[in-house]
UniProtKB/TrEMBL annotation:
This is Universal stress protein. Residues 37-174 form the UspA domain. Signal peptide: none annotated. Residues 12-22 have a biased composition (Basic and acidic residues). It holds the Pfam family Usp. Residues 1-28 are annotated as: Disordered. Belongs to the universal stress protein A family. CDD domains: USP-like (cd00293). InterPro entries: Rossmann-like_a/b/a_fold, Universal_stress_UspA, UspA. Transmembrane segments: none annotated. It comes from the Bacteria.
């Protein structure tokens, strides 16, 4: 019987400690938070990336999370390096057009639902850029569209690479 009472006393001490000390994971994140805080969506202007952004917006709205929409401006190969400033200007124009389209969609839908969102853009490889942003934002989920390029079935798409990284839950929207 003394073993049972000792175990009960130890359990009482542990429960008392839990009431006064927040549960913190070794990585520094608080355990037991309700739902995601940041959902990252990759947007490149393709139909599937727009569907992924809409899906992520719905998730963010339902969960009360921040929607981070990211456009990674591709760095083009050496053949286009000679074009330099013109290529950089074009990718910035694409980023500006995507941001304008997001604002327009928000305006159209504001009576139906609201979601907190940010638009982020950076230059680089799409996989590396999304992975970096997901880590920096501490994204709870990443949502991307399925690749519409035939070559990606052979060499792997951004979506496949994100899933294989295994660092965040990834949803791939068709």
């Amino acid at each position: 019987m003394s073993n049972e009472s000792d175990a009960a006393d130890a359990g009482a001490v542990d429960r008392e400690r839990e009431r006064h000390e927040p549960a913190v994971a070794p990585s520094g994140f608080e355990l037991g938070t309700d739902g995601p805080k940041v959902i990252l969506a990759g947007l490149d202007g393709s139909d599937s990336s727009w569907r992924a952004t809409a899906y992520a917006a719905g998730l963010a709205r339902r969960q009360g999370a921040l929607l981070a929409v990211a456009y990674i401006q591709p760095i083009l190969g050496a053949a286009t390096a000679l074009a330099g400033a013109a290529v950089e200007e074009t990718t910035q124009e694409i980023a500006d057009e995507l941001l304008a389209a997001l604002r327009e969609a928000e305006h159209r839908m504001r009576e139906v639902w609201r979601v907190r969102w940010r638009f982020l853009t950076m230059r680089g490889d799409p996989y590396t850029g999304l992975a970096k942003l997901a880590d920096e934002l501490r994204a709870d989920a990443v949502v991307v569209g399925v690749s519409e390029k035939a070559g990606h079935k052979v060499i792997g798409s951004v979506a496949v690479r994100l899933v294989k990284a295994g660092r965040w839950p990834v949803t791939v929207v068709p």
